[in-house]
Amino acid sequence: MRLSELLAICRREMAGVRDAAPGEAEILVSAVTGIPRGRLFLSMDDDVGDAAGRLFPLVARRAAGEPLQYVLGAWDFFGREFRLSADTLIPRPETEGLAELAVAALRRSPMARPLALDVGTGSGAIAVTLAAEVPEARVVATDISCGALLAARGNAARHGVASRFLPIRCDLLSALKCGERFDVVVSNPPYVAEGEWLLLPPEVRDHEPPGALLAGRDGLSVLRPLVAGAAGLLSPGGELWCEIGASQGEAASSLPCGSLRPLGVFQDLAGRDRYAGWKKRERER
Description:
The chain is an alpha/beta fold. It has two domains: 3-64; 75-280, 3-Layer(aba) Sandwich (Rossmann fold), CATH 3.40.50.150. The protein is built from eleven helices and nine strands. The protein has a seven-stranded mixed β-sheet with strand order 5-4-3-6-7-9-8. A two-stranded antiparallel sheet has the order 1-2. Strand 8 and strand 9 form a beta hairpin. Helix 1 packs parallel to helix 3 (51-63). The longest helix is centred in the middle third of the chain and has 16 residues, at 93-108. The protein is globular, with a radius of gyration of 21 Å.
């Protein structure tokens, strides 16, 4: 079978898939043939053998409502591909903004080998990005899910940062009591309020891990203790950066933060409140 025939079949099948985005057929064909998406139209006459046999199960999973990212088993984040599993959230473009803020904070550290903590690392997308973008940095990544930590460890090895990446299984409260002092703490915590759960798209509710999304009645049940306890994690002058829900900017900026100084609430590229930052006060001289 020629590539052009396979692509035509995939486009026809994907036309009936609800909420499929433009270009998904090309992404799936690229995945099963190994031909980069940017070269598909230069390879239309290539023989792709029995690629259709590998394609149809993926299309069936997508047609059943499974997100494309899980169907592929990987997704790009900050220019790198991250392997995913049912235990990990899908890395999203808005979280790249959080990673960018954390990278900048890590680069501001005066330490020769700065130390960062990613609370609730999931696939390790943020933690691995920090280690890859700041080669002198060391990164601790915590998560309660063994499956998520397994994925994160694999992604760290895949991107060549495993020697500076330490995955630890623990819950939030245990992470807050670790006794270490970090130059940067970053987290994309659960922030979906219980009343918002049914408003999420079905592919999110049915496939992404609820424990990584839901955060009590007001969506702040994880952020609140994290902000309150971060002073005990940060070195003087260290920074905490968190992703928040679009309606949580005012509430996040008003959270009790002890010896931390709020840096403000910042918007994502869509103009929605999405990131909140705090800085630990320097030692008195």
